[in-house]
Amino acid sequence: MKFREKLARFFYGRYGSDQLNNFILILCVLLLIAAMLVRGPASYIIRGVSLLLLVLNILRTMSKNVTKRRAENAVFLKILYAVKSFFIRQFNRIRYIKSYRYRKCPGCKNHLRLPYKKGSHTVKCPRCGTGFNVKL
Ligand SMILES: [Zn+2]
Questions:
Q1: Neighbours of 52 (CB within 10 A)
Q2: Which of 10, 43, 75, 123 has its CA 20 to 30 Å from the CA of residue 105?
Q3: Measured in angstroms, how far is the CA atom of residue 123 from the centroid of ligand 1?
Q4: Residue 130, domain extent
Q5: pLDDT averaged over the chain?
Q6: 41 plus 75 within the same structural domain
């Protein structure tokens, strides 16, 4: 058997890479850079963590349990989306500070963007219909 065929057979059915693996790899590189900047025992700890992440990355890539790896990636993407939307919300808060204020609905925790008018107002949530007072 040719080497190429052996290689193809070895990688057949393996999970490969996904967003979570890419994230782990980036984290690995960042930790290695951080380890170069730090001196003493902390440097070895950071290198150790980086090595563990690299091993985890290789194990995930070589895994044949595709269903489980996909589920892990789905959880990762969910968390990534939550973090991303948090930062986008904070950015928009600053960007539109002159014309809007952002408040959370006490009923359904929905984020509402309210036009900025000084004084006390009654707001009705468009999602759940809860009415509540806001002071802008
Ligand atoms: Zn609501």
A1: 12
A2: 75
A3: 10
A4: 98-136
A5: 94
A6: yes
